[in-house]
Design goal:
Layout (H helix, E strand, L loop, with lengths): L1 H7 L2 H9 L4 H30 L34 H29 L1 H26 L1 H29 L5 H29 L2 H22 L12 H11 L12 H6 L3 H29 L4 H10 L1 H20 L5 H24 L5 H15 L9 H5 L4 H26 L5 H25 L10 H6 L1
């Protein structure tokens, strides 16, 4: 197999394969990590930019509380003169419009990747995501908020293709024995991406015009596309300068290294399975809570706590440190419980999901009642995110538990419907925040807590992690 591929290489491919210092799957992993980072950059930066884009909505004369509607501001707050009179409702729609496109292309992304390979699906998705970011300042200035919403939908369409394509490429390149390490690498990468996106959004907004954020992050995405086009390929056998040694290793671990035909996806069995819908409900609660944190918390820090754009970026990025840490801690605990046979897999998944849902929601509510005690507020939100990390040992692993052969399709369905929550959270929050008063924000956090609590109960009562009959129907029938 490897010898035939070696003979089929061009002269430049053979020469270059001898000069490469890194294994090509390591190059793919690094490019995958960078893809996640630039995706989160272009997605999240709007949550910070909107705090300086718009004219702040207030209603101080109608306050029925002794507390001011917002706290004492940073000495370096330097509120930029927002020029766009967008209501809170319109801001919510703009923040959530990304998820319309993201919802549409999740499942098509899986199907297209299976049929054509992931390289060009990923490249096209990333290209449109980066282009949409670069064009954002022009569209905002020239055509207004509704055209900008359309552009955010285009960005969502691109990223909705990108993530299934990236998963498909990794599935073809990374042997099962290395996927545990890679899984931790990718999970930590997603947390790192959120940290970097928030931190650099704050730094750039504090030092430059708001348009620089969109152009810089979009430009990095387009540069990534150029490097990825020349460095990475859908399948190991298609790579022109992979070494014979690495190709032999992958062939020994994985067998077929090119495009393989798979049996038809058992859609009817998947969609009618009683195991799917509790998982979807739990994902709905997770996506609602996470979307509220990512999309609206920078506004809360700015409008209520009076935190300047630079500190806003620092504080929101800090939230993802406990999230990444707890993902590893809860993962270790979950593995120990299963390997030592102290709990069954289903029980561990339920335990971790409930810890995440109820713990995150409770600390979120506590933070909203800490008023202007900034350090306490930030500490409580960090605890909320710490408990969110338990989801990665809970529902995030269930698609693989239910059906290893169809995990990608199950994850696509679950994520697609969960994206509805990611869309509804900023939109609903926009309707609630007619004015940025404490009690309006508390109502938004109580709503998130309620959804997290209820969806946690649903998964606790009806969720499962047992392998389903549709995973290997022929084997099940024989049994």
């Amino acid at each position: 197999m490897a010898d035939n591929t070696e003979r089929g290489k061009s002269n430049w491919g053979r020469k270059l394969s001898r000069c490469c210092l890194f294994r090509q799957r390591v190059v793919l992993e690094v490019m995958g990590l960078l893809a996640i980072i630039v995706c989160y950059m272009t997605r999240i930066c709007l949550s910070h930019a909107i705090t300086v884009l718009v004219i702040k909505q207030t209603n101080e004369s109608k306050s029925s509380f002794n507390l001011s509607h917002y706290c004492a501001r940073d000495d370096n707050f330097n509120v930029p003169a927002g020029k766009h009179n967008w209501s809170e409702i319109l801001q919510g729609l703009i923040l959530s419009s990304f998820f319309i496109g993201y919802f549409v292309t999740q499942l098509p992304g899986v199907i297209l990747t299976e049929r054509y390979g992931g390289k060009w699906i990923l490249t096209v998705g990333m290209f449109f995501s980066g282009l949409a970011s670069v064009l954002s300042p022009l569209i905002i200035k020239s055509f207004g908020p509704y055209a900008f919403m359309v552009l955010r939908i285009v960005m969502g369409l691109g990223q909705g293709l990108a993530f299934p394509a990236l998963r498909g490429i990794i599935d073809r390149w990374i042997p099962p024995i290395e996927r545990g390490t890679l899984g931790a690498f990718i999970i930590c990468g997603a947390m790192l991406a959120s940290l970097v996106a928030n931190l650099f959004s704050g730094i750039l907004l504090a030092r430059f015009h708001w348009s620089v954020v969109f152009i810089a992050f979009g430009g990095l995405t387009l540069i990534w596309c150029i490097f990825f086009t020349f460095l990475c390929y859908s399948y190991p056998v298609a790579h022109p300068y992979i070494s014979t040694k690495e190709l032999n290793y992958l062939y020994g671990e994985m067998g077929e290294l090119g495009r393989v035909s798979k049996p038809p996806v058992p859609w009817k069995q998947i969609l009618t399975s009683g195991s799917l819908w509790p998982l979807i409900m739990a994902q709905f609660g997770y996506d609602w809570g996470m979307s509220l944190i990512i999309n609206d918390l920078p506004k809360y820090f700015s409008h209520i706590l009076g935190i300047g754009v630079l500190n806003n970026g620092v504080y929101t990025s800090m939230l993802f440190i406990p999230l990444a840490t707890s993902g590893i801690i809860f993962g270790f605990i979950g593995d120990c419980l299963i390997l030592r046979e102290l709990m069954e897999v289903t029980s561990v998944r339920k335990l971790m999901t409930v810890i995440a849902a109820w713990g995150a929601g409770a600390f979120m509510i506590g933070a909203s009642y800490a008023n202007c005690q900034r350090l306490i507020v930030i500490a409580l939100f960090m605890m909320s995110m710490f408990y969110m990390g338990s989801y990665y040992t809970g529902i995030k692993l269930v698609p693989m538990d239910l059906s290893p052969n169809n995990a990608g399709y199950i994850a696509a369905v679950v994520n697609s419907i969960g994206t509805i929550a990611a869309f509804l959270a900023p939109t609903t929050t926009g309707f609630i925040l007619s004015y940025s008063a404490f009690w309006h924000w508390r109502l938004a956090f109580w709503l998130a807590f309620g959804l997290l609590f209820v969806t946690g109960i649903v998964f606790l009562l009806w969720g499962t992690a047992e392998v389903q009959p549709y995973d290997e129907p022929e084997k099940k029938q024989a049994e």
